[in-house]
Write a structure and sequence with these properties.
about 325 residues; binds cytidine-5'-diphosphate; Ribosomal Protein S5, domain 2; five-stranded mixed β-sheet; 10 strands; alpha+beta; five-stranded antiparallel β-sheet
Length: about 325
């Protein structure tokens, strides 16, 4: 496919991209769990110039009732871009793109949440994109997974999402803003790291079969790095909690220094990426009944969800707004 933007040089002779990254390099990533006091679980994520905030409520009773499934719960994600998230003011409210992204995000998350453990309920996931710079659906899905774990929702694992593609006739990891606009292909991808199951796969543009396979491989490898950052954010959040007496409360801490994943993915060991200096600063403690450890322990049976969790209201007045647009 000929590049209609041939004047825009997305990759130079040395294989360096417009933002200075190499072709196999992630943008800097920072993940904080438990940043909101009112939501059951939350996450703030920066990915390059993307800024995403996620709040989770549930499991709680589904309203309207005809949406209840007597056999399992549902996950309702709502993706929303703030009006100020892009350079051209975005008209407030849902558009077709937001409805699409909400749908694919809900489906991807339903693949990891143990929905059969809490029939007739919903887990509501509110994804607010504060600043957008390409890859926001992946940033939102990645952050939503952390927020769900932060809420103690029973899950078999988290989802990690990333979009790679083709720019200036080169395959490139983690497509940036100009690359998204002027590149040749973009492949948003979400995976469950523990099983390798792909729960999100889209493609914009054209790739050969071989290129597509390489892009999937790049996404898969990078996803493992991002997974370490997700887990480290939760460990940091819950290790702060571990030192508290039952019922003891503390004020939320100020956002900690940014944990950042940079550098070529081949060169950076996963463990190092997962434990940069910034992760040592503890955040506010989680609710006393949180069970996030169960989410992360290999082979552990899913934690039981007590009836009272379903009944526990997060405000009945809010119930009908869950997941609605
Ligand atoms: O964000 P993502 O790559 O998942 O989705 P996209 O539809 O491919 O959008 C790519 C980028 O276009 C977004 O991240 C925004 O930076 C930008 N965009 C925009 O400027 N205005 C919109 N109404 C929608 C997207």
């Amino acid at each position: 496919m000929s590049d209609p933007y041939s004047n825009m040089k997305l990759v130079d002779e040395n294989g360096v991209r417009l933002d200075g990254r190499r072709l196999d390099e992630l943008r800097p990533i920072r993940i904080e769990a438990g940043v909101l006091n009112r939501a059951d679980g939350s996450c703030y994520l920066e990915w390059g110039n993307n800024k995403v905030l996620v709040g989770v409520y549930g499991p709680r009773e589904v309203h309207p009732k005809h949406m209840q499934n007597p056999l399992r719960g549902i996950v309702q994600a709502r993706y929303n871009m703030a009006s100020f998230s892009v350079s051209e003011r975005k008209r407030p409210g849902p558009d077709r793109r937001a409805v699409e992204i909400s749908k694919i995000t809900s489906e991807a998350l339903e693949a990891v949440v143990l929905v059969d453990q809490f029939p007739r309920t919903t887990v509501d996931v509110y994804i607010e994109v504060l600043e957008a710079s390409a890859g926001t659906r992946c940033a939102g899905l990645t952050a939503a997974s952390v927020a769900l774990a932060d809420a103690g929702i029973p899950m078999k694992d988290m989802v990690v999402a990333i979009a790679s593609g083709k720019i200036g006739d080169h395959l490139a990891l983690d497509i940036g803003r100009a690359e998204d606009n002027f590149g040749q292909a973009d492949v948003p991808f979400g995976v469950i790291p523990r099983t390798g199951e792909i729960v999100l796969l889209q493609m914009d543009g054209h790739l050969t079969k071989e290129e597509f396979e390489t892009v999937i491989e790049m996404n898969m490898r990078a996803a493992m790095q991002v997974y370490e950052l997700q887990k480290a954010a939760l460990v940091r959040r819950y290790s702060a909690f571990a030192g508290l007496a039952p019922g003891e409360e503390s004020e939320p801490a100020a956002p900690a220094a940014a944990p950042v994943a940079t550098g070529p993915m081949a060169a950076a060991p996963v463990a190092e990426l997962g434990h940069p200096e910034g992760f040592k600063e503890p955040l506010a403690p989680p609710p006393v009944d949180a069970k996030v450890e169960a989410v992360l322990v290999e082979g552990e049976a899913a934690p039981e969800v007590e009836g009272e969790e379903v009944e526990e209201p997060n405000g009945d007045d809010e119930a009908s707004s869950g997941g609605g647009y």
